Amino acid sequence: GELCMVNVLQWLQDCILKSTAKAPDANNEDRKSAEGQESEDPAKSVFSRYLIQSHHIYGKDKRRNILDWATELSLTGFCLPGKPGCICVEGQKQACEKFWSSVRRLNWKKISLRHHEDFFVASTEELGSLRCFAKFEELNLDPHTCHGGRENIMDKGKMYEYLVAHNCQHIFSFFFSVEGQGSLRETSQ
């Protein structure tokens, strides 16, 4: 029951995402006509940031696929393995959509697109200026264990500090529905 509903909801989410991407924007069409750029793909002029959260990310194959796909699609961001698993990718809208489509087709206990941001850009230079991350990397933020050492629970304070260092702390609340704070271990010393 629950697993089936998750798949149905993800399918609906994808259909809505595709239909909104295909819906013509009157202002965008007028601007393109004025500039004489009808042949350019509108998705290439959109910078996106996708925030994906999983119940957990442990498997080596999944982690390798995530890194490989992000690199192949020229996306930047991070993958934070553990529980919960968090992925942030940023780049051209088409590439982010393809990445999300590939990732969600893997076998997950639970995965969701928590939030996405779209920015219209006029040039590739502007695309680069919107990036918060220089590359895509897997983070290791000293996870701690519980339940007899079976689960690697991430240090949310260290994740928040990482996001602050990359000037994108606003995305923390999309992952955890709370405002972020620095690591308690480091701030109490």
Distance between the termini: 48 Å
Class based on secondary structure composition and strand pairing:
alpha+beta
Main β-sheet description: 5 strands, mixed
Beta content: 15-25%
The helix-strand sequence is HHEHEEHEHEEEHHH
Secondary structure: helix percent: 40-55%
Pfam family, one: Prp3_C
Domain Small nuclear ribonucleoprotein Prp3 C-terminal: 52-116
Protein name: RWD domain-containing protein 2B
Question: What key attributes describe this structure?
Answer:
189 residues; alpha+beta; Alpha-Beta Plaits; 43% helix
What's the quick description here?
With 189 residues, the protein is of the alpha+beta class. Helix content is 43%, strand content 22%. It has helices spanning 2-22, 26-35, 60-72, 93-104, 124-130, 156-165, 172-176, 184-187, and strands spanning 46-54, 76-80, 85-92, 111-120, 136-138, 144-146, 151-153.
Folded structure, characterized:
This is RWD domain-containing protein 2B. It holds the Pfam family Prp3_C. Residues 52-116 form the Small nuclear ribonucleoprotein Prp3 C-terminal domain. InterPro entries: Phi-like (IPR017359), Prp3_C (IPR010541), RWDD2A-B_C (IPR059181). The protein is of the alpha+beta class and 189 residues long. It has a single domain, classed as Alpha-Beta Plaits (2-Layer Sandwich). It is 43% helix and 22% strand. The protein has helices at 2-22, 26-35, 60-72, 93-104, 124-130, 156-165, 172-176, 184-187; strands at 46-54, 76-80, 85-92, 111-120, 136-138, 144-146, 151-153. The strands form two sheets. It has a five-stranded mixed sheet with strand order 4-1-3-2-5, covered by helices on one side. A two-stranded antiparallel ribbon has the order 6-7. A hairpin with a 4-residue loop joins β2 and β3 (85-92). The radius of gyration is 18 Å and the shape is globular. Residues 26-39 and 183-189 have low confidence and may be disordered.
